[in-house]
Design a protein that fits this description.
By secondary structure, the protein is α/β, with parallel strands linked by helices. The chain folds into two domains: 178 residues, Rossmann fold; 177 residues, Glycogen Phosphorylase B (Rossmann fold), CATH 3.40.50. The protein has 15 helices and 13 strands. The strands form two sheets. It has a seven-stranded parallel β-sheet, sandwiched between helices. Strands 10-9-8-11-12-13 form a six-stranded parallel β-sheet, with helices on both faces. α1 crosses α15, α3 crosses α4 and α8 crosses α13.
């Protein structure tokens, strides 16, 4: 394939799985010689990260008040850059960019959808998804099904492609990672860990995980619960921990740029989300790090956490069921080991960044060689 010019737009200002997906996709394509640009708010957390990675970044407010001016400015930019591919990611930037691209002859226009929250079947969304984009790219099969069923988008233009992870060059030994976490938290080296690596948002299910741990902490005397991440739910969660009298057993590390040593230190990584998930990269990372996983039957999580095969799956907002899944994971070590090995092989075969990038290039080529993919 020829070297492409690719433009991404992103209106979200926080940092999470969606933004990580956008940045890793940009850097993967750039490393293979393609010209990559990003339009995003200047105060968005992805903005300086993309600039530091050598991505050409253009500032756009992508707000309701700025929409008209953003549309005019972005249309001018697209004329100047003449991209082969335009990929929009957030709600506001998609409303602006997909309209701005009309009539410019861009060979592949993609509307990406990262979260499983249903897309409203309004006439405007129907136009954006069905008529203004060549393909809709989702991170989970449940998202694809909803878009086809509710928005009337043709099934052959909705593509499910989970985010690929970038495996580290080296992973620490589990014993060494556990010892370092014990030292970080000021604990003796006999301590063991259950954890959750995720932003502290109200829908990530940290409160459910805390309730589950409250139920079983006396059955797991050596185990501590470690919450890796930060967010607006931190104070609320810390209050819950204090009320439960578990301040010595539940630890908040804050945001960590490199999560891999934590996955290696944990005996089990839990994501108890209640909504909105595509395919969470934190679960893929944990699986690659050979850390046992438990997820909820929400969004795209069942695409990768296959019960009794790659992990355990529980109902959302069910701390009792989650508590029993934790006990089963920690007590039946042989079955857990088998799931861990299957999960590692599954991620290595299907969800690396290279695999994602190759499939994206295949999608671009499909768009370029199809007369009218819409």
């Amino acid at each position: 394939m020829k070297k492409l010019t690719i433009v991404h737009t992103e209106s979200h200002t926080q940092w999470g799985g969606q933004e990580l997906r956008v940045l890793t996709e940009c850097t993967w394509m750039q490393a293979r010689g393609h010209r990559v640009f990003l339009a995003a708010p200047r105060h968005a957390r992805i903005y300086p990260k993309a600039r530091a990675a050598g991505i050409g970044v253009y500032p756009y407010a992508f707000s309701r008040l700025s929409a008209a001016m953003d549309l005019l400015r972005l249309r001018w930019l697209l004329k100047q850059l003449a991209p082969d591919v335009l990929n929009t990611h957030g709600n506001m930037d998609s409303k602006v960019a997909l309209v701005a691209a009309r009539g410019l002859g861009i060979g592949c226009v993609i509307r990406s959808r990262h979260h499983s929250h249903p897309v409203s079947p309004s006439w405007y969304n129907r136009r954006l998804y069905r008529d203004f984009s060549h393909y809709v790219l989702t991170t989970g099969s449940c998202i694809s099904r909803q878009i086809v069923a509710d928005l009337g988008v043709c099934a052959d233009k909705v593509v499910t492609l989970g985010s690929g992870i970038r495996p580290p060059a080296n992973l620490p030994q589990k014993s060494a990672a556990r010892a370092r976490l014990c030292a970080e938290l000021g604990l003796g080296e006999t301590a063991r860990f259950i954890g959750c690596v995720a932003m502290l948002r109200d829908w990530k299910g940290h409160d459910v995980l805390l309730d589950a741990f409250v139920r079983i902490h006396d059955r797991l005397e050596r185990y501590h619960l470690v919450l890796v991440g930060d967010g607006d739910e931190r104070e609320n969660l810390q209050r819950r921990v204090r009320r439960a009298g578990l301040a010595q057993r539940v630890h908040f590390t804050g945001f960590r740029k490199n999560p891999w040593p934590y996955f290696r230190a944990l005996d089990c990584n839990v994501l108890a989300s209640t909504k909105n998930e595509g395919i969470p990269q934190v679960l893929l990372q944990a699986m690659y790090a050979r850390c046992a996983v438990i997820g909820t039957d929400v969004g795209g999580i069942p695409d990768i956490v296959r019960p009794a095969e790659t992990g355990l799956l529980v109902a959302p907002e069910n701390p009792g069921q989650l508590a029993e899944a934790l006990i089963a994971t920690l007590n039946d070590r042989e079955k857990t080991r088998q799931r861990v090995e299957k999960a590692y092989a599954f991620v290595n075969a299907h969800y690396t960044l290279d695999r994602m990038g190759e499939r994206l290039l295949g999608l671009y080529e499909r768009a370029f060689t199809t007369a009218d993919p819409r």
